[in-house]
Each structure stands twice: as structure tokens, then as C-alpha cells.
Amino acid sequence: MTAPVRTIEQAEEVRRPMVLALAVSVLGFSLMQTLLVPALPELARSFDVEPAIAGWVLTIYLLAGAVAAPILGALGDLRGHRLLLLVALGLFAAGSLLALFAPSLTVLLVARVLQGAATATFPLSLALVRSHLPAQRQGAAIGWLSGMLGLGAGSALVIGGVLTDAVGWRGLFGFGALVALLSLIAVVCWVPRTRRGRGEGRLDLAGAVLLAVGLAALLLAISQGAGWGWGSPAVLGLLAVAVISFTLLVILERRAAVPIVDVRSLRNVRLALVNAVTMFLGFVPYLFYVGLPILLESTAGIGHGMSVTVAGIAMLPSAVLVFVGGRLAPVLLARLRGGVVITLALVAMLAGSTLSAVAPGSLFAVVVGFAVVGLGNGIGFAVASDLVTRMAPRAEVAAAAGLNGVLRTIGSAVGIPVTGTILAASTVDAGSFRVLFLVAAGASVLAALLCALIRRD
Fold first, then answer.
1. What is the number of structural domains in the chain?
2. Residue 457 domain-assigned (yes or no)
3. 3-state secondary structure of 7
4. Which of 93, 111, 353, 453 could anchor a disulfide with 98, C-beta 3.0 to 4.6 Å?
5. Spatial separation of the C-alpha atoms in residues 85 and 76, rounded to whole Å
6. Does one domain contain both 231 and 267?
């Protein structure tokens, strides 16, 4: 009678540190999304380049991550998720060390490409949760992982400001290397070994190339559209390359035995809707991530004249509430359908965006508004991740989550130039920021309408 009890207790002892190890891994990738934002002016001075050129250290990380997540996710489904998680973290550590000693901006950008492999930690971690945890524990674990996405991105603004002021921009990559090393140790020690995956089949290299080319062209056009001109030959050419690449990808993947992106799964209307909503969940917070530091740090117009560090602290409540939202999502899912919960999350994002738009010059309104947006975003990400892992076949969870992560990245990448376009030609006045926050509100409404069509098994 006592043996089963000991077995359960031993299993719990394995599961708890495993979730912690996966959460630390996801946190590292999330931190590096925005950790460099406070250091961009110093980077520009250090390498004697224009601020727009220095901004590539953010853009190329998103580009690399958008390509790496589905490829490493698909490899994880084939060869084992734990193995590929270690590979992703190893590349993250190598990129961090290379960036720490980078002698030029070119080398730094190469390092950021290597760091971008860490984006795959999220879909691989979701797949490991599906493999090792019982169904009743999966929701809570996914909530932890999803919460880390926003907690890392928000807290990185504070950490980045403090480290930049204290030790300079290279210290940010030393911090990244430390997080990567801790993640590697935690995964080796606490994440159980897994089977090699499906084993049969080989990675669809042609599909991987088409996916990489299409995503790189699309995100490059989006990120540079405002600067180069949306009607410029360069942007139109990139969009044409993206369309051609994705068209060929769909044709090829329909025939592939082991597709890197199973386009046939897009016939699942509910899964396609969840992916579409995820794009909005990535888009809305980036309007705030990029716009709020300008509003809080500027001394002109309705700006609040804060230092980089103080502005990051003002944005920290949102990061905390993203994490709280991720932990709250499983509780809500136990009582309500997934589509209803995401709708409620988007209503919260709508409310926070509207509050910010009503009084963009009020510090209270924008801080509280962004905090409410963070709460809704945390709930929404957690529910979307939960739905994707439940709708996808068990053997393809990492690939499906990787594709979902790509769409989230695309949404985030779109948010950067949209914010720049709205704010570029104006001073820090109420009108421009009101438009920015109303765009966030409108995106929340559109996503909520899509959620009305989602049904949960």
C-alpha cells in the first residue's frame, strides 16, 4: 500500500525542478528580447553608427529566432526535445560569449543570430511538459512558462538600464552568458532524458531554407518599411521574395513525409484561429515596449523626464502581471472554455490600452494601463500555448508550438515599425501617443472577435 505513494512523491520531486529548469531556460530567451533596449544609444556611440543601425541588434534577434524556433522544434520532434533544448541553450551561451568580446558591430550581429536560437526553448519546453507531466499538471506548467515570456521582457528593461549604467553594454552579454550557463546546468540535472523522438524521417532541409528565406524577407521588410519607404523597390522586392518563398513552401510541405511546417494542420480552423490571435498578442505589448520609454524619458511635451532605470521600474508592474496572468490562466481554464478565457484576456488588454489613450500625459494612467495590458497578455499567451499543445498531435507539439512562436514574433516585429511610424514625425505630444494606444485597443478588439470563433474540446 505504501509503494504507490512513494512513487507519486518521487515523481513530484522530479517534476517540480524540471518545470523550474524549463522556466529558467525560457526566461533567458525572453530577457534577451529587450535587455539591449536601454543600451542602444551606448552601442551606437561605441561602434560609431547611427541609432537606426544599432537597432539591428534587436531586429536580427527576432529574425533569427523566428527561423530557429520551427526548425529546432521540428528537429526536437524527430531527435528528442531535451537534446535540442541543450543545443539551443548551447548556441545561446556561445552567442553571449561572442557578443561579450565582439570587436565590431558585424561580429555582434553574428552573435545575436546565435543567441536567437534560444527562441526555440519555449516550444521545446512545451513539448517536454506534454511528455513528462500528467494532464492535470500541464496547464499550471504552461502558465509558468508563458508567464516567463512577459516577466523576462519587462524586467529586462530595468536590468538592462542598471547594468548599462554600472558596467556598460558588454555587461549585458556577460549576464546573458551567466543565465545560459545556469539554464544548461539546470536542464542537464533536472530534465529527464527522453526518447529520441519519432526517429523516422529526416529534416526537410528544402522546407527549412524556404521558411528561413520567407521569414527573413518578410520581417526585414516589416522592420525597415518605415525607414526605407513602404513603396521602395527594396521593400517591395523583399515582400515579393516572401510571397514566392511561402508559396513554394506550402507546395513542398504538402508532399513532404516529415514537413518542417505541417501546412495540412492549418486546415484545423480552431488551430489557425489560435495562431492568428497569437499574432495580436505579440503585437500589442510591443507598441508599449517601444513607445512608453520615449514617453517616460522625454523632457519635451507630455514626457515625464525619467532616467532609463526609473522608466524601466515604471514599466515593471506590467511584467509582474504578465507572470501573474500566466499563473492565473490554468485556474480560469478549469472553469471556462479556452476561447472565453482568451476573450476576457483581450478585454483586459483593450481596457488598459483605452485607459492609456484617454490620458497619455498622466503617469498614473499609462503605468496602470500598461499593467492591465500585461495581465491580459499573460493570460492570453498561456491559454494560446495550452490550446496549441492540446490541438497538435503529440509527436508534433514542438513544431506546432514553434510555428505559433513564429507568428508571435511576426506580431512583435510589426509592432516596432508601427510605433516608429506613428511617433517618428512628431514631438512627444498627446495626439501621437493617443493614436498609438488606440491602435493597441483596436488590435485587441480584432483579436477578441477572432476569439469568438474558437471552441475548446
1. 2
2. no
3. helix
4. 111
5. 8
6. no
Asked if residue 456 is part of any domain, the answer here is no
- CATH code: domain of residue 55: 1.20.1250.20
Mean pLDDT by 10 residues, the chain (457 residues): 42 73 94 87 86 80 85 86 95 97 96 94 91 86 85 86 88 96 95 67 78 84 79 93 92 76 71 90 90 86 86 88 90 89 95 96 95 95 88 76 81 82 75 94 94 65
Which cell goes with 420?
Answer: 516608429
Cell numbers representing residue 266 in the block: 492549418
Distance CA 391, CA 131 (A): 15
Could you please report the per-residue DSSP string of 92-105? HHHHHHHHHT-SSH
Enter the C-alpha cell of residue 81. Answer: 526535445
Sequence-distant (6+) residues with CB within 8 A of 397 are 77, 123, 126, 127, 130, 388, 389
Is 284 contained in some domain?
yes
**Same domain flag for 241 and 317:** no
Helices and strands counted in the chain (H then E): 17, 0
Could you tell me if 77 and 189 lie in one domain? Answer: yes
**Tally of CB atoms within 10 A around 276:** 17
Alpha helices in 168-307 (DSSP H): 170-190, 205-228, 233-253, 269-297
Residue 426 belongs to a domain:
yes
In the 8-state DSSP scheme, what is residue 250? H
CA dihedral 307, 163, 115, 194 (to 10 degrees): -120
Q: Which residue has the cell 503585437?
A: 283
